[in-house]
Amino acid sequence: MPLDPMPESSAVLEVVLEDAPTCVCGHVRDAHEHYRPGTDCALCDCPRFRKKR
What we know:
Number of strands: 0
Distance between the termini: 52 Å
Oligomer: single chain
Shape: elongated
């Protein structure tokens, strides 16, 4: 039985790009804002927000 490259039930992924300042780690500023003191990234181990140039 041949494999169908695009089965009818395949899902489509929609990607929305934000026009927001990003850190050198690649995450947006919101990932560096917390309900506790600190500016470390909530999604990786970047120690603080540094705007990407």
